[in-house]
Every structure is written in structure tokens, then in C-alpha cells.
Give the backbone structure.
Amino acid sequence: MSRSGSGPDEPRVTRVAADATDQSALSRVSQGAVAIYNCANPPYHRWATDWPPLALSILETAISIHAVQVTVNNLYAYGPLDHPMTEDDPLAPAGNKGRIRAKMWTDALAAHQAGRVKVTEARASDYFGPGLTDTSHLGSRVVPRILHGRTVRVLGDPDAPHSWTYVPDVARTLIVLATDPRAWGRAWHVPTAPPQSQRQVITTMAALAGAPVPHVKSVPNWMIRLGGLFSPVLRQLPEVMYQFDRPFVLDSTRASATFGVQPTPFPQALAATVDWWKSRALRSPS
């Protein structure tokens, strides 16, 4: 379901146009659902205004139709840490976006603990994989430049260890969380391969693509600040730059041990991503 009714061209998927902030509309199209997946992501600079009514509508709908609510979340709510993040770490967000996401979870958890609904949450690091373009740090700003042998500019320290979550692993985890009662009432980290720095990932992608290893440079802080004068999205970056200027590592062993979901081997995931970009380039008009 989306405002436009657009979505994947997949025979097992029924596309519905509706505004999820309209609880009556959301409840109407969700009747009979076993689970409601909150995979929404309002524009980055509009989280403070868009998320509260959207999250409330989704939660109240799950309550009204007796469905499990499964929320897709990121790692902002933990704030900066000097160790690999686990589900036991307290929520100590460093900025407003992290506070918004933390409140969404605590509100849902409170409803669960009150016996009104069953909820769970999947937390993942930065996404990558086939089909992701502008929304991925390993998407349109990186892979096409690798394929064309151009310099790649990245946020923060190119050599800091960083966790990357493969989108098909997110999907497999979401299916399990909705259907396994052991998942309900707590958050889980999506099974994610061991961390690699941005430079390591780019070097591997270049080798997989048969391209020369590109120069990797960090985007200067002054350029980010300058861009923020004109772009409301870039204006949000300083709040989360800690995720890129130091190690940012996710420990996902609990979900793997509990549900048997293992992360896709990293070289395999990167190869699928590079192959998708190469096929896209071949389909594009000259």
C-alpha cells in the first residue's frame, strides 16, 4: 500500500492506493491481514511532522484488526557507541530523528505490554542490494562511478568499519518476525554480515565489476554544510555523521541464533548488487 498505489510488478502482490495516516482507510484495506508491516519512510527532513500521525495510525490499525505490527527501523535510537550494537543497548539517541524513532518503538511496546496488540521491530544498518538507487549509500552515488572508473566520494572516514545490511535479508527477517511468537514484544537486529569499511566495499565492487579500483575520497565537512544551505536533506546529515566518522558496527547474532536466519555472504550480496547495476546500464538508452 502506498499513496500512489505503485509498487513491484509481482503477481503475488496486490497494489493499493491509500494514505496510511487515514486510519479508517488503512483499516478498511487491511481487514484480514495477519501482519501489518510499517516500512514507510517519510522525507528525511519531515520526520518530525510526518512520523507521529503515520505511526499512530498504523499502530491503532494493527490494534483494531488484531494484526501483528512489524516495524522496520534503523539504528539512530542507540546514539553513538564505542562497541558493536546489540538489542540490549539502551536507547540514547543523539538527535531528534533518533528520538522520533525511539518514541515510535516505546509507544508500540507500551501497547504490546498492555495486551492491546502484538508488536516487534527489525533494526538494520545501511541498506544495499539490487533495486536500491538514491536511498542507499552503496547505490547511485557509488556503483555507477565504480563502473565508469571515476572517483568515489563517501561520507566520513573511508576506512572506518561499518555494517551494511542486505535488503533480501531484511525481507527474510520480516517474514519470520511476523509469524514467530518468540519475536513479539522485542526488537531484533537483522542478520548482517561482518563489517567492512567503505573503501573495502568499493574495492571489492570494482573487482567484481572488472573495473579499476577507483580513488576514494571523503566529502569535506564544509561541502556538507554548504549543501545544507540549499538542501533540507543535506541539512540533516550532521546529526548522524557519527555513524560514518568512526566504527559503526551491528551485532546481529541474537536473531540468527534464535530464528536460524543467516546473513547472505557479503561477496555474494555485493556481486548481486553489481550485476543489477551492470544490467541496468545495459538497459539504459545510449
The chain has a mean pLDDT of 93. The beta strands are 35-38, 68-73, 118-123, 126-128, 152-154, 164-166, 187-189, 216-218. The first helix runs from residue 23 to 30.
